[in-house]
Write a structure and sequence with these properties.
By secondary structure, this protein is of the alpha/beta class. The protein has 15 helices and 38 strands. Among the domains are: about 160 residues, Immunoglobulin-like, CATH 2.60.40.1760; about 120 residues, Immunoglobulin-like.
Length: about 650
């Protein structure tokens, strides 16, 4: 059952598509049989005592565990490339949690600004959700299980985006492929070594001076012909689109946006100016439906050249610094210099070293993604001026919605690939997400795994992380182990930052191991895509924590390094270095399968309980649930080339499986 409560004057985020009346909060407990304290004095706070056995699921793209208990999280979309354990905010804002124990209750706090979740951080048994303004909708969902609650929630937020099948192929990306030749070299690197691939991503380097919807004509002399040449090789090129539009006289998109008043404005009506990759930029006001349609329409410039997929970036929106921020910094530095000169300059440097610099330093440290900047610009929402910080978490959602709505008009019969860095619940109807700038760390394989089911609860099914790690240098074994998890994530993309070690699979020794691991992905695509489409159509989760299916098995509930995939599979990737296998927990009998490097299959039935399984670097393990089977085909070089005549069924004899695509 879903109940909706309105507090104050909520902003209509359009996260929820189901329409039903909101009850005014009358001061009574709203959480089924759980007594809750709600206060609307001094902002909004919602609090209650958790049972010691309660597990708290949810929060989508958030740090730490599948069970969110024991820490705090803040929904405040942030461009932060250091996903260390203490971080409380990442790129997305997904304010949905499920408290699952003796009863099962889902809570969705539909509030587009900063909101914090203290889930047993201040006091181990207390859950407190707070935000500055008591203007929000609260949805309370009660059900018979965590699964049931998640499904009911999905039922009210609208169907998840379905990516084209080619987007289940493997993709290679790197910040730093500058020219058509660079991209051709990547394609040859894969094709010449028969490592399957379907996509090459184009990072900001393809643009002319980082201007959205432009292609550098020197680096890509005849882009349309190049896109076609790539298509002939079964490669889809996927360009990046950034949120900031470069300020440059003569750049049509900038000029049009200014003229039509489609950029975010300061209080005094001038266009807000922020520095991002291109230098000074304006942000398209994607919360204004007209501006959204205008910005979305620009994607056609690239679809007309043959492009059929995009990734939207820097849409928290990330701000390196603003004009105002630079002025404040100048002022603080000026004060420092004057204090220094006034004190007699270098002779007195020791006496005055402590005088002002901490102010300049504090400004310098905060100049990037400064919360103050988010209070300096406004949106025009259906004629109403809304200060950005009050709706901050909706920017990435609406930038991707701009693209999604436009692409549906541009090519109504064609599925396009679309995913974003920043998001809010509701964006799952328009595209997927990738989990941003992770690092080449072993711990980030596990973080990748743990985020997946939480994202699925919030509707985001087409998701994945930068395999191999974005920041810092990868290693061969890290990449192989990460790919063996990526085999199962809908988005399977190797991406890395400018200046890091080369990370394409063909750069490493024993290329055949990479060919094999990625080949396994292609062997499984008919199954994976089928489970993905079913999950999207039925509001189900593609990835589930073990506790969703085995809620009475405490050991299963506490297992956070294995996941259920679809209805047939359990995955348990290896995520530590220098090991020849790992321990797995089986809540019931399953068939352990390994895709061996020689193309054969290792199969063994394992009983309920704990097992140590050996998994070499070049093997891909999975488990098939008792009495079930999955289709597998022969490996192919591209999704298009998959031959369904080679299908065989793997798993338990007598089981049947229906492929949906
Ligand atoms: C951001 C993105 C990253 C991209 C880089 C350059 O850091 O998250 O994926 O490579 O910008 O565009």
């Amino acid at each position: 059952m879903v109940s909706k409560y309105a507090f104050g004057s909520p902003f209509e985020t359009e996260a929820v598509t189901a329409e039903f009346p909101a009850a005014a909060y009358t001061g009574q407990a709203v959480c089924g049989d759980i007594p809750v304290d709600i206060s609307v004095e001094n902002g909004f706070s919602f609090s209650f005592e958790m049972d010691s056995a309660d597990v708290v699921y949810g929060l989508g793209e958030a740090n730490r565990g599948i069970n969110k208990r024991g820490y705090r999280y803040v929904s405040n979309c942030t461009d932060d490339p250091h996903h260390t354990e203490e971080k409380v905010s990442l790129y997305g804002a997904h304010n949905f949690i499920i408290i699952s124990g003796k009863s099962h209750v889902g809570l969705f706090f539909d509030y587009p600004s900063t909101i914090s979740f203290d889930i047993g951080y201040t006091r181990p048994d207390r859950l407190t959700v707070r935000c500055e303004r008591a203007d929000l909708y609260l949805y309370v969902i009660t059900g018979g299980s965590a699964c049931d609650v998640a499904k009911q929630f999905r039922g009210i937020i609208g169907k998840s985006y379905i990516a084209p099948k080619y987007a289940f192929g493997f993709g290679q990306s790197r910040w730093g492929y500058k020219t058509a030749e660079d991209i051709e070299a990547v394609v040859s690197g894969y094709r010449d070594h028969q490592i399957p691939i379907d996509m090459v991503y184009m990072d900001i380097d393809y643009m002319q001076d980082y201007k959205d919807f432009t292609v550098n004509p020197e680096r890509f002399p005849d882009f349309a012909a190049f896109v076609q040449r790539m298509k002939e090789q079964k490669i889809h090129l996927i360009p990046i689109i950034d949120a900031g539009v470069k300020i440059e006289q003569g750049y049509d998109i900038y000029e049009e946006g200014v003229e039509k008043g489609y950029f975010c404005k300061r209080e005094d009506g001038s266009d807000f100016v922020a520095a991002v990759w291109p230098g000074w930029t304006h942000f398209p006001d994607v919360l204004n439906p007209e501006a959204r349609a205008w910005f979305g329409g620009k994607y056609q410039i690239l679809t007309d050249l043959g492009i059929d997929g995009f990734w939207n970036d820097m849409n928290e929106p990330a701000i390196f610094y603003s004009e105002e921020g630079i002025k404040e910094l100048n002022q603080a530095i000026g004060d420092h210099v004057r204090a220094f000169d006034g004190a007699g300059g270098a002779e007195n440097i020791l006496d005055n070293a402590h005088a002002v610099p901490h102010e300049a330093r504090a400004i310098l440290e905060q100049i990037q993604n400064n919360q103050e900047d988010y209070r300096r610009f406004y949106h025009n929402v259906n004629g109403k001026k809304v200060r950005h910080d009050l709706v901050h978490n909706l920017f990435g959602f609406n930038m991707t919605r701009a693209a999604g709505e436009a692409l549906r008009k541009i090519a109504p019969d064609k599925k396009m690939l679309l995913f974003s860095r920043s998001s809010y619940i509701g964006m799952h109807r328009y595209g997927g997400i990738w989990t941003g700038d992770n690092q080449s760390w072993w711990s980030h394989i596990l973080l990748n795994l743990k985020m997946m089911p939480s994202l699925n609860m919030c509707g985001f099914l087409y998701t994945g992380a930068d395999l191999g790690g974005f920041g810092s240098d990868t290693t061969r074994d890290l990449l192989l182990r990460w790919l063996a998890l990526g085999v199962f994530t809908p988005l399977m993309r190797n991406h890395t930052a400018l200046g890091t070690r080369e990370q394409e699979c063909y750069q490493f020794e024993h290329i055949e191991d990479f060919r094999h691991v990625i080949g396994v992905r292609y062997r499984l695509i008919p199954y994976l895509y089928s489970e993905y489409v079913k999950a999207a159509q039925n509001d189900d989760m593609y990835f589930r924590p073990l506790g969703f299916d085995y809620p009475d098995d405490r050991r299963a509930v506490e297992t956070e390094d294995q996941l259920l995939l679809g209805n047939e599979v359990m995955i348990a990737p290896v995520y530590t270095q220098n090991v020849s296998g790992r321990t797995v927990y089986l809540p019931e009998e399953m068939k352990f399968v390994k895709f061996m490097p020689d193309g054969s299959l290792y199969e063994e039935i394992l009983g309920q309980g704990t097992h140590y399984v050996e998994v070499a670097l070049n093997e891909v393990p999975l488990f098939i649930r008792k009495g079930r089977c999955i289709p597998v085909v022969d490996a192919a070089q591209s999704v298009d080339a998959i031959d369904m005549d080679t299908v065989q069924y793997l798993g338990y004899d007598g089981a049947a499986y229906e492929i949906v695509s």
